[in-house]
Amino acid sequence: MHRVALVGRHLLNPSLVLHRQISMEPRAAVDRVRQSGLLKTQGLIGGKWTDAYDGKTIEVQNPATGDIITSVSDMGKKETTDAISSAYNTFNSWSKLTASERSKCLRKWYDLMISHQEELALLMTLEQGKPLKEALGEVAYGAGFIEFFAEEAKRIYGDIIPATLADRRLFVLKQPVGVVGAITPWNFPLAMITRKVGPALACGCTVIVKPSEYTPLTALAAAELSLQAGIPPGALNVVVGNASDIGDTLLQSTKVRKITFTGSTAVGKKLLAGSANTVKRVSLELGGNAPCIVFDDADLDVAVKGTLAAKFRNSGQTCVCANRILVQEGIYEKFANAFAKAVQNLEVGNGLLEGIAQGPLINAAALEKVETFIKDATSKGANVILGGKRHSLGMTFYEPTVLGNVNDEMLVSREEVFGPVAPLLRFKTEEDAIRMANDTNAGLAAYVFTTSIPRSWRVTEALEYGLVGVNEGLISTEVAPFGGYKQSGLGREGSKYGIDEYLELKYVCLGNMKEA
Ligand code: ADP
Fold this sequence. Notes:
Layout: H1 26-35, E1 43-45, E2 48-50, E3 57-61, E4 68-73, H2 77-94, H3 99-115, H4 117-128, H5 132-152, E5 159-161, E6 169-176, E7 179-183, H6 191-203, E8 206-210, H7 216-228, E9 236-238, H8 243-252, E10 256-262, H9 265-274, E11 281-285, E12 290-294, H10 300-312, E13 322-328, H11 332-344, H12 364-379, E14 383-386, E15 401-404, H13 411-414, E16 421-427, H14 430-438, E17 445-449, H15 453-462, E18 467-470, E19 489-490, H16 495-498, E20 503-510
Parallel strand pairs: 7-8, 7-10, 8-9, 10-11, 12-13, 12-17, 13-16, 15-16, 17-18
Antiparallel strand pairs: 1-2, 3-4, 5-6, 6-20, 11-19, 14-15
Adenosine-5'-diphosphate binds near residues 184, 185, 210, 212 and 243.
């Protein structure tokens, strides 16, 4: 197997300060995390770090080098059942704390994440592959959900409804839904957890997190910090291991009142169906097929910069990544040239190295999927403007790719490619663009580049998408609602709306209020 070259004698010192020198050798990065006490390899059940009951472990691999970083507990049904019991028992005390008490714990957790941002980012780059700068960005973004919901905890207001009879008073209380099962993917190993756990804990729910088997280390490190922050044992549990065993145990339990999931549409549908038997609340954030529409009247620089960011963040492995770049015919050639030039400058390599913009894909299956999509597109008439093959670094590195003359019959425009491939499709009119953009079962993010304000409104209103970026490619933030239309999901995460997913409404009628 090809190993990625890492050069520089000075890179071997684990006590290196990242802010001074971003490049680091993987072994030194692991040592640094270990020394900070954040390299956790067991599950967390009831506040105790716990091995799988049968002692089994799974290896966690660095996708940039193929090295095994460490092994973690390979848990299943029994451990999940115990984690559920622990969350269930802790619900009683955690939900009865005052909002201010819960808020203080969350705020402390946020502070600890920020003071350990470098160790968290190193872990993320090691197990997921994203460039360290992006990983640091994710720590800030991910921790931001905890900070936001620490504040929001104190703003869960009920209502008083004008009564229909003189001797009655009508109220609405908001109460935590109960024990929450949170299943998360590998592409944002921290933020996908904090955007679920933040609102859940803020309103008094307790949680069992099942992180992706590819990226459990960031989740476990964050959980360690939650204990240090004073979040009580049992309020946040983490089980790592067999996905369907853990998932089925969460689904079957009547103690688990809500499932929140980010991941593939196929697994999301399974979880939705599996929740029917116990009628759980379900929030889903599933796949996208984001259109990025560049109109003739767009500012070319803004469009290139925004599309680059929307397409190539995390090497194209996000559900809001631009999947189809629809370019109006008048600007097509100019845009294609400028965009390809910008893509050419993206440096590919191990994310621990300075200046790297594109890390590896998560695994061999992801690489093969990209290859299949490219083959399908070129066999149907697409032309490779840039890239189009595995990167000479080997492993799962793929060349940042731009495809021209793509049409809506190709896999690359029907499904998420989840890789560094930007397909350009040509359109004539605004109506064509809207029709093409909406011609999918997905509806998560869409991007529009135009300098016309009326057009930006018209198109935004017509797009069947939960998030729209106008003249901007990076739009996610903890203060705004995130979620999809159609088969991209159910519910919203982040923002003041995100906490509703974890709350029950209780209507109370106070009757027979006689005069004294
Ligand atoms: P991706 O293709 O992005 O990895 P998945 O939907 O396969 O998306 O994975 C997202 C999360 O769902 C991961 O934590 C994974 O382990 C988990 N998962 C996969 N299959 C199941 C299942 N049958 N039940 C519960 N969780 C599952």
